[in-house]
Amino acid sequence: MSFDRSIKIAPSILSADFANFGAEIEAVEAQGADWIHVDVMDGHFVPNLTFGPPLCAAIRKHINTVMDVHLMISPVDPYIQAFADAGADVLTAHLEAGPHIHRTLQAIRGAGCKAGLALNPGTGVEDIDYLLNMVDLICVMTVNPGFGGQKFIHSQIDKVKKLRAMIGDRPIHIEIDGGITPETAPLMAAAGADVLVAGSAVFKGGSVQNPAPYGENIRAIKASVAS
Ligand code: DX5
Ligand code: ZN
């Protein structure tokens, strides 16, 4: 996985057909997805349940690009090895998921994955100074985690600007997750983000049988950022 700051669209399979993940992933990649974002929820850290390591292992062979696994679970540490074994390229844990995020990030890199740190909308960037040298990605949540299709929280623009300044020349991706559309994407790209997760805005109007809308939706987000 090489590092650059070009804009990357990461469709979240939370908005795909759950009965057809393999074909959905292949369709959305063929339509221009840069990364595939996989939302793992435990019904405890967030009020929703999705799937775990076996599902990640099963879909891995359908993903040619980066498998970006977003862990909305607590505790995290007992499951890191299983998600690494399932083939995650990036493994992102929440700062809010437990008292020992430093240990968690060490364990993620120790398992051979890129380490991601996610911040809920209510979390500031003040406490992450001592984590910057141990992360490859910071995920700024622009909705409260748990569900797709929620409204973008504008106060996070300022957070991304602060984060971008803190990161400086370090090779750390800034990922935005939640409510990304052609209207909100340019705000985040201008603030310094490079990975844009989008679920509903990518999958709307399309299907495995009719994948062209996925491509149109991805290009609409990319065009909004370029203009
Ligand atoms: C929310 C998830 C997001 C979500 C984004 O908890 O982490 O990845 O699927 O969905 P949209 O783009 O619909 O807000
Ligand atoms: Zn996510």
From TrEMBL:
<feature type="binding site">
    <location>
        <position position="12"/>
    </location>
    <ligand>
        <name>substrate</name>
    </ligand>
</feature>
<keyword id="KW-0413">Isomerase</keyword>
<feature type="binding site">
    <location>
        <position position="39"/>
    </location>
    <ligand>
        <name>a divalent metal cation</name>
    </ligand>
</feature>
<dbReference type="InterPro" id="IPR026019">
    <property type="entry name" value="Ribul_P_3_epim"/>
</dbReference>
<comment type="similarity">
    <text>Belongs to the ribulose-phosphate 3-epimerase family.</text>
</comment>
<feature type="active site" description="Proton acceptor">
    <location>
        <position position="39"/>
    </location>
</feature>
<dbReference type="InterPro" id="IPR013785">
    <property type="entry name" value="Aldolase_TIM"/>
</dbReference>
<feature type="binding site">
    <location>
        <position position="70"/>
    </location>
    <ligand>
        <name>a divalent metal cation</name>
    </ligand>
</feature>
<protein>
    <recommendedName>
        <fullName>Ribulose-phosphate 3-epimerase</fullName>
        <ecNumber>5.1.3.1</ecNumber>
    </recommendedName>
</protein>
<feature type="active site" description="Proton donor">
    <location>
        <position position="177"/>
    </location>
</feature>
<feature type="binding site">
    <location>
        <begin position="199"/>
        <end position="200"/>
    </location>
    <ligand>
        <name>substrate</name>
    </ligand>
</feature>
<dbReference type="GO" id="GO:0004750">
    <property type="term" value="F:D-ribulose-phosphate 3-epimerase activity"/>
</dbReference>
<dbReference type="InterPro" id="IPR000056">
    <property type="entry name" value="Ribul_P_3_epim-like"/>
</dbReference>
<dbReference type="InterPro" id="IPR011060">
    <property type="entry name" value="RibuloseP-bd_barrel"/>
</dbReference>
<comment type="pathway">
    <text>Carbohydrate degradation.</text>
</comment>
<feature type="binding site">
    <location>
        <position position="177"/>
    </location>
    <ligand>
        <name>a divalent metal cation</name>
    </ligand>
</feature>
<feature type="binding site">
    <location>
        <position position="70"/>
    </location>
    <ligand>
        <name>substrate</name>
    </ligand>
</feature>
<feature type="binding site">
    <location>
        <position position="37"/>
    </location>
    <ligand>
        <name>a divalent metal cation</name>
    </ligand>
</feature>
<keyword id="KW-0119">Carbohydrate metabolism</keyword>
<keyword id="KW-0479">Metal-binding</keyword>
<feature type="binding site">
    <location>
        <begin position="146"/>
        <end position="149"/>
    </location>
    <ligand>
        <name>substrate</name>
    </ligand>
</feature>
<dbReference type="Pfam" id="PF00834">
    <property type="entry name" value="Ribul_P_3_epim"/>
</dbReference>
<comment type="function">
    <text>Catalyzes the reversible epimerization of D-ribulose 5-phosphate to D-xylulose 5-phosphate.</text>
</comment>
<feature type="binding site">
    <location>
        <begin position="177"/>
        <end position="179"/>
    </location>
    <ligand>
        <name>substrate</name>
    </ligand>
</feature>
